[in-house]
Amino acid sequence: MDRRIVLNTVKNMRDLGGIAMKDSRMIIRPGMLYRSAFLYQASPADLAEMRDELHIRKVVDLRTDQEVAKMPDEGADGIVYTHRPLLNESMMGITHEIRLESENRSVMLPDMQDMYRQIVTDKTAQRNLGRAVSEIMTHDYDQGGVVWHCTEGKDRCGITSAVVLMTLGADRDTVMRDYLITNETNAAKAEGYYRYILSKGEEERIAAFVRDAFLAKEEYLNAALDAIFAAFGNMEEYAEAALGIQEKVLQRFRETVLTKADPS
Question: Helices (DSSP H) in the chain: which residue ranges?
Fold first, then answer.
C-alpha cells in the first residue's frame, strides 16, 4: 500500500493511515496522522488540497526558531499552525567540519547518530519533543488530521513519528519501514549533491558524507531508539517518564486514531 501523497510544492508527505499495530488487529485510521517536509513556499493549491481533500487542520512545525524565520511555512485558512522546535541551533553543534577546497570554505554537517541520540536524551529536547507529541495526541480529530514536519521530513520528523507509532503499538520493523520511505523522495536529491561535490574536485568521503545527511539510514534512527530502550525499557515508559505524556492521554489517542483491521 503506497501511503505517499504527491503534491507539487510540499515534499515527502505521507499518511500514516493503514499502518498496522503489533498484533495486526488494529490499524491507524486514514486521514488522521500525516508527516511531511516543510511548507515553505507551499502553493495555494497544495494548501487547499491539504485542507479540503486531506482534511488537515493542524500543522506541528519541529524546526528551530532560526529555520522558521528564514523559511516560514505558508499558511491556509482553517489550518492551525503550531511551532514546537525539537532543537535549537546551539544543540545542533554536534558536527563534522568539512573543508570544501574548491570553494575555499568550511561547512559544518551534523554527526547524524549523535544528533538523533541528543534529540531523545537531552532534557531540553525531551521537553520540546514531549510538547510536540502532546500537540499530536491532544488534537481534536473530529475537526480533521494533523501533519508534523521538520525541513526534509526525515530526522526530527522521523523521531516524532517513531514515538507516535510505537506508543500506538507499532513494532520497530514497521517504524523503520515508514522511516525509510523518505529515501524514495530524497535519493535523487542526495545523489545530486554527491555528484555536484565530486564535480568540484572534492574527496569522495566528503561527497558521501554530504549525501548521507540527506538520506534516512537505519543506523540513525536505531541510535535514537537504542538510547530510549537502554534508559527506559520501552517507548510507553519513555513517553510518560521523559516526555510527560499521561497514560490517559495516550489511551484516548489510541481510541481515537486506531480502528480494527479488515480481516479480509
Answer: 44-52, 65-70, 112-121, 123-137, 156-168, 172-180, 182-199, 204-213, 218-232, 235-241, 247-257
